[in-house]
Amino acid sequence: MPRSLIFAVGTRAQLIKVAPVIVACEKQGLPVMLLMTGQHRETMQDLIDEFGIRSPQEQIMQAEEHSTILSLLRWLPRAYLGMKRKLRELIRESTDRAFVLVHGDTLSTLVAAYAARRCGATVVHLESGLSSGRVFDPFPEEMVRRMVFRMTDIAMCPNAEAAEFMRRRGHREVIDTRGNSIIDAVRLTGASAMAQDASDAYVLVSLHRFQNLYESRRLRHLVELVENLAKVRTVNFVLHPATRGRLISEGYLDRLSASGRVKLLPRMGYRDFICMAAGSACVLTDGGSNQEELAALGIPTIVMRARTERPDGLGANALMEKDVPGGVLRYVLEDSVKALRRPSMVWNDEGPSYTMAHYFAEYGRPKECGAA
Asked: Which range of residues forms the domain containing residue 256?
């Protein structure tokens, strides 16, 4: 059994994905520590409390929200140095193998994986093997994924295709967890029951990706789409800090506020957001995690991106923006989204998070967990 399971967490979405894995590891009695890189600040402690995480956590630097590219660039070297310093300290104190678990494709993922490699720790990549097939799309997430793949010692993959992708890249230790940990996170919210009694009263919008916010023409198109939807439907627009910052700098926030049917909402707790999504007519999102959550719940979803690395929901409850017949505005206003609704796939049994925890509890016998 490994002595140290160190989860590197920077963003809210990461914390949501790793929280059920941490809870499963705690139930196995495994030693867990959280290292927080401070990439996000809002609601992080609320999420830890919401999921009932008991393991110790340590901030490697002061948490702050980054709504500009410049602020992220300033954060990056400080986060790396802080992570490397703390990992060296933990590894010196440990007599056994240290596992650093990183998740997904954020800058925190890259920082932690690189620091772990430099410190001689074992890098475990959760949600590994996903790829859009395009180096610069989405940017910078796809580039981060590819760099982290090269540093990964143990790849925890959410499906057989991702696992095979990592095996082809020469990884000897590849685990197919047969699902994404987000299923366990959604199950813990209890939102599945709400999904079957959804309302046609509102559309939920959540946008935060670089390519949607920092290309002026694209941002203007999205704002006009929200305004036109709001002429007929109530639109609940959840504002990430970066989204709010860009809307203010481009002069769109007041414009949207003036629309009586657009409700501008702050980023909220996980359970509140998932329950709001479950009760909506449809969701417009550019979030990969949202795509997975909504696929599990069967909620009509339009993925507001050119490409996605995730297969979740496509061909069932979800459409890519470019594939929407007649365009997003017409499709939503004519209630064509109703045809996308599917039954919830959230089960009550222990899911992928427990496969991962079991792997570490039984470390040294990976074939029992589907390793290559």
From this structure: 190-340
